[in-house]
Amino acid sequence: MIDLINVKKAYDTGVQALNGVTLHIERGEFVFIVGDSGSGKSTLIKLLLKELDPSSGAIKVNGVNLNKMKPRDIPKYRRKLGVVFQDFRLLKDRNVYENVAFAQRVVITPTKRIRKNVPKMLSLVGLAEKYKAYPKELSGGEQQRVALARALVNQPNILLADEPTGNLDPTNSKEIMRLLETINERGTTVLVVTHNQEIVDEMKKRVITMQKGVIIRDERKAGYTQHAD
Amino acid sequence: MFSLASVATMSACIFLFGIFFCVVENFQHMVREMEKSVAVTVFFDEGLSQEQIDAIGVQIKARPEVSDAVFVTADEAWDEYKEIYFEEAPELAEGFEDDNPLANEAHYEIYLTDVESQDDLVTWLESVEGIRRINESAQVADILTNFNLLVGYISVAVILLLLCVSVFLISNTVTIGIAVRREEIAIMKLIGATNGFVKAPFVVEGIMIGLIGASIPLGLLYFLYTKLVSFMGDKFNILTGLLQFLPVSEMFRILLPTGLALGVGIGFFGSFFTIRKHLRV
Ligand SMILES: Nc1ncnc2c1ncn2[C@@H]1O[C@H](COP(=O)(O)OP(=O)(O)OP(=O)(O)O)[C@@H](O)[C@H]1O
Ligand SMILES: [Mg+2]
Hints:
The complex is a heterodimer. Chain A has helices spanning 41-48, 74-78, 96-106, 111-124, 140-152, 170-185, 197-203; strands spanning 2-10, 16-25, 30-35, 56-61, 64-65, 81-85, 158-162, 189-193, 205-211, 214-222. In chain A, 32% of the residues lie in helices and 28% in strands. Chain B is 72% helix and 9% strand. Chain B contains nine helices and four strands; from the N terminus they run αβαβααβαβαααα. Chain B is elongated. Bound molecules: adenosine-5'-triphosphate and magnesium ion.
């Protein structure tokens, strides 16, 4: 489903953010990516979103080589991915319903379908009643759940989450992670970048650890650090 | 805030365009009207026989710049003359009746297809054997044509300048709009919005500015032009023979689509190229 072969990425500033990453993720997997600040985790997510292009190496997602993708095919490719970020990135001038519906409008969905899909998504993340609220009226956890609903409403087969609980308290963090697990159980491949040691230890998923632009550890049913258990 | 400035500039641009357009069109119309009436008149050498005169007439009519040539006999010339100068005292003219004082005034009135070729025709006529005198009424037509050209140049310059300002302001409006909505645009792109989808609202905004900026001055011009024509008709009806205004409907048959196309065109290109610059993938 996701394949990286010796991927390197140097920024224009000369910073070598990724220095030879080779990685294979199967369809339906749940993967944590952990590592020190600046180890290249967000860079990896951006490469998968084709926000950035690698300096060298190949990336294949859903069977498509991203290096060979034409610019006009990028939107179509991104529709197969869902993304959430640490800072939620909701539209502040639109309510919960509109924020989720926005994702559907962007991919030209008939209004009739939007009216059916959005409430379904909102009840999945447990926000069915708050559909009229504006982002500033919601807690961080609620905002992240809106973002999650927005990421999922177009039914992506891969969900990328870059520190989705970075701004949340432990209770909210656990709820979000549980949601991600539910989504994964429904068949979506989930990739979560996180610093939340406790949750990673608890969930016993595949954990990829990065350091200075390379993968130093990749274990199944693992904890945050090698000697966690 | 900025779109207001864009609409205002656009309105000014198209308003001026409209005014110049009306002026140029009307002058062209007047010149055309004049061309119908302006004639070159040729008189013949004394004692030239009717056959010889007819032969010259055939030659004149064969010229490409001649639309028509009318032969006026000496008697007809006299009748016309009488009508003008002895209108008050026709009995005075009676005395000349048997001895036409204009016996040698048989002539051709030559009508041209367009005023500019008049000089060519006159040069040619001067070389024709048997022609005594050529009367030309070139002056007025010449002045009108030159004036029309001058107005045309000035209007092109002013309109080009305003066009640049309009495009600049629309470009500014769009740039600010993109800056304000940067976050939204970034999210749209991550969700998988096509470039067209991201651009569309800005292009629509540009076209709307163009449409509004064109409609206001066109409406105003319609109103003012109608007023002007009826005012001129009322107050200066002596001049109406000379100052023939194009009717407002005929004026706007061309001005309306041109003005709207201009506005929409500026709006479209102004916004389209600004977005291209700012929203590279
Ligand atoms: N746009 C950029 N231009 C230049 N250098 C960058 C850019 N983005 C990231 N970097 C550098 O690349 C390296 C990797 O950054 P990245 O954001 O991938 O780290 P990270 O693992 O996500 O860190 P964190 O856990 O703090 O989010 C860092 O040294 C960072 O300073
Ligand atoms: Mg990061």
